[in-house]
Every structure is written in structure tokens, then in C-alpha cells.
Design brief:
Blueprint (H helix, E strand, L loop, with lengths): L2 E5 L3 H11 L4 E5 L2 H10 L4 E5 L7 H10 L6 E5 L4 H10 L3 E4 L4 H29 L3 E2 L2 E2 L3 H14 L5 E4 L6 H11 L7 E5 L8 H6 E2 L11 E2 L1 H4 L4 E5 L6 H13 L1 E2 L8 E2 L3 E6 L3 H6 L5 H7 L2 E4 L10 H15 L10 H9 L5 H16 L11 H17 L5 H19 L4 H8 L3 H11 L6
Parallel strand pairs: 1-2, 1-3, 3-4, 4-5, 8-15, 8-16, 9-12, 12-15
Antiparallel strand pairs: 6-7, 10-11, 13-14
Helix pairs in contact: 5-13, 6-7, 13-15, 14-16, 16-17, 17-18, 17-19, 18-19
The structure holds adenosine-5'-triphosphate (ATP) and magnesium ion.
Length: 457
């Protein structure tokens, strides 16, 4: 809980401010500058509410004393004298704000809330940045969750061996990053890291891509070509989407891995290759083996050590940390020293969203936010639509908790959002939208009429 120190010689003022704030923060009181200094020495408050005219030293002197001690706690000055000069002097000394007595309680409450919120966020951001920098980063991978801490240890262990690793995980979970980390932490780090996406190369070209070819090996082979295996010599070859490798290439790859040598296309002189091979797939290879789509012998050969990258929704505690890391990187890229902050609503939505596209989607969402916020605070509205919707669901719940909406209103607003999303996802084709929701088109139409959703086709 945050704490506020009220410094005023009038007991009535101390008491009324204590009543005003006691529900949202801890309130300490002091009757003069000396006892205020003692209170600050005991525990630094998050905010000081400071009277100016008191018996003994003036409240303004306290501001100077605090700053001299390196205490940057914000101060709101309460001044009875209706003169601007005192306020001006207070601001010059570094007060955050001032209110004149008799003050309006609501206005004061708002100021206090804003300052406390600002202070809380600033502290949170500092803490996250520190974490990103110090403890929760390994080979470019960021994460504080136990699962990721485990992954760091696995990377460290695998880096010291030469075994072939199969990295599995949904799209965007950081499989390639993990492969790069294993390489980067290994004795081969000075050698090349060569990545090949087996799913992105035409099946008839993949052999030459991996093993290279001799001049004239096939029509169009006008030059000799060095393959990726040879290029990775002395380093690491990362075979991404290995599950997409055509059957005949699976045999050839198995041979290369077992014999540690390759044949360039059009040559029968084997070339020895010294490479560490790492592989990755987003497919369920075990099932592919059962269904006969992937060779069992190759599967066992590459899956000596499995490594699973967990989806982001299984490690939500990493979200704020990752967001901060991407904000920092984004700010650096556009050359601004101060990464923009996320608003409270934006942060809540990021933590609530399910992230089907995992870390990559989060990275893109932050980029989106950075681009739309133009350097200021990133609010919910500058995040991608899918994330905003989560935030809206959360605010609906809030409004219900606070009694501003009743049950029926919450449910129908929520239903409206789901219907709209299903319609948008299906380009407003009502048949397909209804299908995706598991309802008939007639029911969809009825609901659209009831909730006033107009068709847009
Ligand atoms: N733990 C992490 N810390 C920091 N950045 C991460 C982390 N995990 C992933 N990223 C970033 O997210 C993006 C996606 O990661 P990567 O390309 O490694 O995922 P992938 O699992 O290979 O995805 P795909 O299956 O789609 O190829 C990259 O920009 C990567 O730098
Ligand atoms: Mg990848």
C-alpha cells in the first residue's frame, strides 16, 4: 500500500485528510517540520501533503530539506494564504502542485490519486527495466516465469553439448530465438549460425539448398553452389519447420546427420561437414510419425533432446517484462531515450489477452502501440483491435462490479462484441459468422436485430 504524510499544525485538518485518504493509502501525520523529518526518516512516504504556515519552521523549508537528502517524494502544498507568491515559491522549490485552503476535497483527492498512480507506474517501470537488464534475460530471451527460467537452464546445458535438439512450440513462442541462444552460448558461438526454413523452399530445390550442387548438375545449375550445410561448417545449422521436409529429403538428411558428410547434387564425392544441427517445428511430429508422414528413424535422430517452448498464455507473468523489453527496444530504434509508458488499461488488456500468436504477436502489438501513440503514453486505443476487445471485456466487468451496469446490460454488451467480432472475422458474411459461432443464420439475424448490429455487406 502506498503512504501519504500529512503535515499540518491544525489537528482538524490532519484528521479530515486522514479520513479522506485512509481507504486508499496509509496515512501518517505530523504537526511540524521536525516531526515530519522524523517520520520521513522512519519510512519514505510516496507523497507529502504540506501546510506552509506552522509554528516553528515554515513548511517550505521541509521541501528543501527533503531534496537535500535526495528524497524525491512529490509534495502538494496546502496554503491558506490566498496569495500566489507562496505557491510560486513552493513550485520553485520543487513542489509537485498546490491547493489553497479551504480546499475542495474531490479536487484534492484527484490530484493525490494522479500523483500516486504516476509514482506507482514509474516505480513499476524501473523495476521491470531492471529485471529485463539484470536477471531475466538470457541469450536474448526474456522471461521471469518458472517455465522460462527452466528454459534458460536447458539452453545453457544444451549449449555445452553437441547433441541434436528438436525445439517444439506454437508459432511465435521463440523457437528460433532459443536456437540462436543455444548457438550463442556454445563453444561454436564464433562460427556461423545458418537458418533454413524447410517449409519455405520448393521441394525440388531443397536438396541443392542444403547440400549445394556442381555446375551442370541440373538444368539451370550454371554455377557451382555451396549448400547451407557447408556454409554452417564450424557453427550451427538450424533446420526450421523440419516437419515440412519432403520424404526423400528426410532420408538424405538422416544420412548426412549419421555419416557427418554430404553429397553435393551432381557429385558422388562425399564432403565431410562439422556442424551442430538444431531443428524446430510447430507440428506434432510424433503424430506425423504415427501417420507415416515423418520417418521414425529421422525423428529419433533429431529428437535426442526435446525442448518445448511454452505458449505465452501459460506464462502470463512474462507479459509485462516482455512488453517493457519491446518498448525499450522500440524506443531505441526510433532514437528516443525515454520509452513511452503503457497506460493502466493498456497494461491490463495485454495481461488479459490470450495471445494466439504468442511473443511475436505481443511484439507486434507493442510496435503498433508505439506507432500510434506518437511518443506519448500508449493507451488501450493504440493497441491492436483484438487486444482492445479483451480490455473492453475487462472494463465491462469493472462497470458491473461498480454497479453502473446490471447483469442484462453486461451480457448483451458482451454478446454484441462477440457477434461483431465473428462478423468482422468473416468479412460480414452472416452464414460463415453464424457457422463459426455454432448458431443458425436465423438466430444470428435475430440477435443482430435485437442488439442493433447493422449488416455491412
Ligand atoms: N523470450 C523471449 N524474449 C524476447 N523476445 C522473444 C522471446 N521469445 C520470442 N521473442 C521474439 O518474438 C519473435 C518470434 O520469435 P521466434 O521467431 O523465435 O519464434 P518461432 O517460435 O520461431 O516462431 P515461428 O514458429 O512462427 O517461426 C522474435 O522477434 C523474437 O525475438
Ligand atoms: Mg521460427
Amino acid at each position: 500500500m502506498q503512504s501519504v504524510l500529512v503535515v499540518d499544525d491544525e489537528p482538524a485538518v490532519r484528521e479530515s485528510l486522514r479520513m479522506l485518504f485512509k481507504r486508499e493509502c496509509r496515512v501518517e501525520t505530523a504537526e511540524d517540520v521536525e516531526s515530519a523529518l522524523r517520520a520521513v526518516a522512519r519510512a519514505e512516504p510516496d507523497l507529502v501533503l504540506l501546510d506552509v504556515v506552522m509554528p516553528g519552521r515554515s513548511g517550505l523549508e521541509l521541501i528543501g530539506e527533503l531534496r537535500e537528502r535526495g528524497i524525491q517524494t512529490p509534495v502538494i502544498v496546502l496554503t491558506a494564504t490566498n496569495t500566489v507568491s507562496v505557491a510560486v515559491e513552493a513550485m520553485k522549490l520543487g513542489a509537485a502542485d498546490f491547493v489553497t485552503k479551504p480546499f475542495e476535497l474531490e479536487a484534492l483527492r484527484l490530484k493525490v490519486r494522479q500523483l500516486l498512480e504516476h509514482r506507482r507506474l514509474a516505480a513499476e517501470v524501473l523495476r521491470l527495466r531492471d529485471e529485463v537488464r539484470e536477471r531475466h534475460r538470457f541469450g536474448g530471451m526474456v522471461g521471469r516465469s518458472p517455465i522460462m527460467q527452466d528454459a534458460f537452464r536447458t539452453v545453457e546445458r544444451l549449449a555445452q553439448s553437441q547433441v541434436t535438439v528438436l525445439i517444439t512450440g506454437e508459432s511465435g513462442t521463440g523457437k528460433e530465438l532459443a536456437a540462436r541462444a543455444i548457438h550463442g552460448e556454445s563453444p561454436l558461438a564464433a562460427g556461423p549460425f545458418v537458418a533454413v526454413n524447410c517449409g519455405a523452399i520448393a521441394p525440388n530445390l531443397i536438396e541443392s539448398e542444403l547440400f549445394g550442387h556442381e555446375k551442370g548438375a541440373f538444368t539451370g545449375a550454371n554455377e557451382k553452389r555451396i549448400g547451407r550445410f557447408e556454409k554452417a561448417s564450424g557453427g550451427t545449422l538450424f533446420l526450421d519447420e523440419i516437419g515440412d521436409l519432403p520424404a526423400e529429403m528426410q532420408v538424405k538428411l538422416l544420412r548426412a546427420l549419421q555419416e557427418r558428410e554430404i553429397d553435393r547434387v551432381g557429385s558422388s564425392t562425399p564432403i565431410p561437414v562439422e556442424v551442430r544441427v538444431l531443428t524446430a517445428t510447430h507440428r506434432d511430429l510424433e503424430e506425423d510419425v504415427r501417420e507415416g508422414r515423418f520417418r521414425a528413424d529421422l525423428y529419433y535422430r533429431i529428437n535426442v533432446v526435446p525442448m518445448r517452448m511454452p505458449p505465452l498464455r501459460e506464462r502470463r507473468e512474462d507479459i509485462p517484462l516482455l512488453a517493457e523489453a519491446f518498448l525499450g527496444a522500440g524506443a531505441e530504434r526510433i532514437g528516443s531515450g525515454h520509452p513511452p509508458r503503457l497506460s493502466e488499461r493498456a497494461r491490463a488488456a495485454l495481461e488479459e489477452y490470450t495471445w494466439p500468436g504468442n511473443v511475436r504477436e505481443l511484439e507486434n502489438a507493442i510496435e503498433h502501440g508505439l506507432a500510434l501513440s506518437a511518443g506519448g503514453e500508449i493507451d488501450l486505443e493504440s493497441l491492436p483491435l483484438a487486444v482492445q476487445r479483451t480490455g473492453q471485456a475487462e472494463s465491462l466487468r469493472d462497470e458491473w462490479r461498480q454497479g453502473r451496469l446490471d447483469f442484462d446490460q453486461v451480457v448483451s454488451r458482451f454478446e454484441t462484441e462477440i457477434l461483431r467480432e465473428a462478423l468482422e472475422r468473416n468479412e460480414w458474411n452472416q452464414t460463415r459468422a453464424a457457422d463459426s459461432l455454432g448458431i443458425t443464420r436465423r438466430v444470428l439475424k435475430l440477435k443482430m436485430d435485437r442488439f442493433g448490429i447493422e449488416s455491412q455487406d
